[in-house]
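---------- Forwarded message ----------

FYI, see the Structural maintenance of chromosomes protein record below. Original note from H. follows.
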Amino acid sequence: MDAISFVLGVHSSHLRSQNLKDMIYRSEALRKDSDTMTTGSGVHHTRSPKKAHVTAVYETSQGREVRFMRAINTNGQSEYRINDRVVQYTDYNKALEKENILVKAKNFLVFQGDVESVASQHPKDLTRLIEQISGSWDYRDQYEDLKQKRDEAIEESAHTFNKKRGIAAEIKLYEEQKEEAEKFEKLVADKRDLTVQYLLWKLFHVEEKARALEEESSAKNSDKDDLQFEVAGMEDNFKKAREEKALIHREKIKCELHIRKITRELDEQHPTSISNMEKIAQLEKKMKQTEHSIERIKRDGQQQEQVVATLEKDLELLQHTEQQFEASIPTTAGMTNGPVLTGAQLMDYERRKQEVSIKAVEEQHLLQQYQRQYKTEKQRLDEQKSKMEKLQASEAETLDDLRQANEEKASLTQEAQAIQERLALKMLENERTTTHQREVKLNEKLQDVLSKLMEASVTQQESEKDSRFNESVATLKQIYPNVHGKLSDLCRPNQPVATVLGRNMDAIVVEDDQTASECIEYMREQHVGVATFLPIHSLSLPPINDRYRNFVKGARLAYDVLKFDKQYDSVVQYACGSTLICDNLNIAKQICFEMNENVRTVTLDGSVIHQSGLMTGGQTGAQTTKKWAQSDVEELMRNRDKLLEELNQISKTKRMGTAEDSAKSDCSNLNSQLNTLKEELITLERRIEGLQGTLENTRKNLTAALQPYEQQKHGLSQLEANINRVQEEINRVEDHIFEDFCAEINVPTIRDYEAMQYGVSDEVTEQRAQFASQKSRLETQLAFEKDQLNELIARLQKLETTLTKDATQKSKLEADVAGMTGKTEQLQSKLQSYEKELQKQIHLEEQKQIDINEVSRALEAKGKNVEELLREFRAVESEYEKVRAERVAIFRKCKLEGINLPLTRGSMDDIIIEETNNNSTQRTADDNESVSDASSVTSSTNSTAQSVSTDMELDVPVSQMSIQSTDWEVEVDFSTVGAAQRRDDSARLDHEFQEQIKKYGDEIEQMAPNLKAVSRLEGVHERLSVAEQEFNAARATAKSAKEAFNLVKQKRYAKFFAAFSHISEKIDTVYKDLTKSPTFTLGGTAYLTAEDQDEPYLEGITYHALPPMKRFRDMEQLSGGEKSVAALALLFAIHSFKPSPFFVLDEVDAALDNTNVSTVASYIRQHATPDFQFIVISLKHTLYEKAESLVGIYRDQDLNSSKTMTLMLDQYQN
């Protein structure tokens, strides 16, 4: 097989040695003595052969011989010869293919062991085999290449088509955008024309309104000056009256100081007196409670003595009963004198006892059952009896507690009534004391308020400039709602924090830049001074270093110390920054100089260490108090008037007299005692309710337990009767059986013998145990009750001792109270004289206050007129400023948005818009003055213009606009404003303008047109032309690639299908021929199935074989012989498509039995022809005995090589 395969060009991987040079036969190599030859020069010469060859002599159908030879050398190189002519392998292979010897498909041989693998090979391997046989395999590479090109061409065609379609859509989009841009431009023009008309209408009515307001403002200002002059004269009279009242008030204060001093001395004595009286009352109450407890303990002791006596009597009675019981039992000495039995008598006794047990077995069993029940019921009865005894004892105890509680309740009620009577008497005295204390407190508060007013001297010290500034701030708050006030009024700082704020103390806090600008413009026009404005929403805030919050003990961030509303957080952070407040100067120095922290520190006394290292000294308390007291002056004056009014009312209602003054009672003490008694009564009532509930529950439980007790007692009696009855039956049986035995031993009954022999009965033992248990219980209870009696006696002695001590202490306290009474009367006499003088001064002060009130009311009336006129004047001014601001906003809107208004004089270029830097430059109210701090922030004209111009919101408040200058030399042409629009300045028409403009604006905003669509449309048309050319070229390429691919596909399919159809038709016939037998004349069935019907060469070919009379199974489940037959059928069918001139089979019958071997041999014999030669290698004589000729292989020992022998069997056919 190696030689045939080698010469026909089979690849070396299918041979026994994959290295071709190893196939060169070297017979000399086996002989050790002739491996090499050594010459005289010592050179070794190898005698092994250098090359080998195999020659196949093939006779064609025309009878011509062709010699195919393949040789190899030691380098493993092959040489091919045809008729001794050296040729290339391709020519060598083509020559074989002309004779249908296909080397790749190996259609001329089957290797040893490959039969079964042919049948069970993978479907795709079978497909490949058929492709090689059919020749469609030659188109495989071309098919794959053209298929890839076709797919790429189709993809490119689709890409160019999509590109063309995208450009077409882009053109359509640009055309739509062109139309939208034209529509957009028309809407913009319409909106601009409508906006100009609206602004002209608005500006016309603004200027008309400004002229009217200017005239009204002049008239209001003249009336305001007249009223203010009249008010100034009335204020002088008011000040004189207040000065006179102040002199009277000083005298009144002196009297009050004397009264306060005497009252303080009385108050110093009063707590001691009250304390002693409270102690006396407490001792009285304690003594009453002790006496009540002594009486209760005495009653309890008598009851306890009765209980002890009863228990002693019960114990004595029990001992007497026990003695009587023991006397009734026979003595032990008498029992031991009974008869003595012999051994035979003992055996007879035991036999008779067993007989009794047998005859009375039911009665004994029943007796044991009754005895167990009796014992259980007896135990239950004892438990129930003990429970009832406990309930009865609890009932008696609860009744006793209830009686004691009711007695204690009656005593407490009587004591509470007595205290209420004393409290009613003391209320009048308490009222006087309370009034006096209230008067003292009010005088102290009044003195404090007057001291603050005198120290501050606000009305005298407040300068004209400060007054004017405060009035300006108040005016700004009225005109502009977004003005919050001065920073010092919005927080509550102390001395160091005031130092921290520094120049920002009087800064005015506003909402935003626009409000600040409007306020600055107002103050500049009114010439009311300079101010710093801090807008909440526009400040550049310095960052706060959180590390300083817990940096050094004794140092805190000033920002954390201030108390303020949350909305002012940014303003306070701006003013304070990361400044630290230190407890003392040493801590501040440590932070700045030792720790080298670049931070501003302030101490509690006002010392400052700046970031530069410069130190400044602290301020005095008066300097800072003045600054902060100014905001509280009005509140102090209101508190002063309120306190004076309350003191006058107390003076009118206060009762005088020594009786009341000396009766400074302890009403609070009485109230406390009364409340304590009430609480005790409530507690006692709850206890009584609980005792009543307990008593009711105990009686209920006692009633509920009585019936079961009687039932159990009755049941126990029945059990005793049953036990006696059954015992009598057992006794009768014993008497009958032991009758002659008892006569023999001379005893009345056998039970008498057993009693004398074995001691007392179980009943006697049980009765003794009961006596012992009852005796132990009585002795224990008696000992407990005696201990209780001893405890009561000890408690009684202790309470009597306590009562004696309390009586002694009470007598001592009463003596101390009597000694304080004399001194108190002297002080009260002095107090009365000072109070009379005080009433006199109060009366004079009241008269003066009446005069002041009259002047004040007149001044207040005039002041209201002035305020009303001033309010009207400010309202007119404010309205005028709003109108001016609105006019400015309109012009700025036009300037910023490029709106050209029709002008009769000047041009839009004459309108100037000033630029300001946000958060950097201060704006002042006076052009001639400047502010030193650069932290004030003013509004930006850009932001103002934006806020007005965005959505035509021209009717916003003035506080949201910025006013700069309106002295522009321009005059608007209002000729286009119609008569109807001149007459109508209503909000309705304004709303219509706004809505129409907003409608245009919404449409314009929603459109978002592409204004470059027209210019881009031409370029897109050019791109579309290029894309169409690319698409046509790609489509043509795809068409040609598809046609080329289809041509190769058809060729490949035709070749493959021709082979597949032939093999499919042939295989069933071949398989039937190989499986026929006399038993199964039809044979088996075999067929091929293509997994892909359209292109079967792309997928696998499945081979199925059904042996005769077998179910369908996969090829792997067939036996070895069945697989071999199926494989042979497949090989013969494949070979029949392109039959080679010979077919070499190597031991294909190895797995076949003799029957199948004979069938295969017959098939080969039938199909062997002169043009089709079978060469079969076999070891089974059943096969090779049917051959035409035989070739035998044997080993020549001499040559150590193979030799052949041949035998022609044709001559032996007959």
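H. also flagged this: The mean pLDDT is 76.
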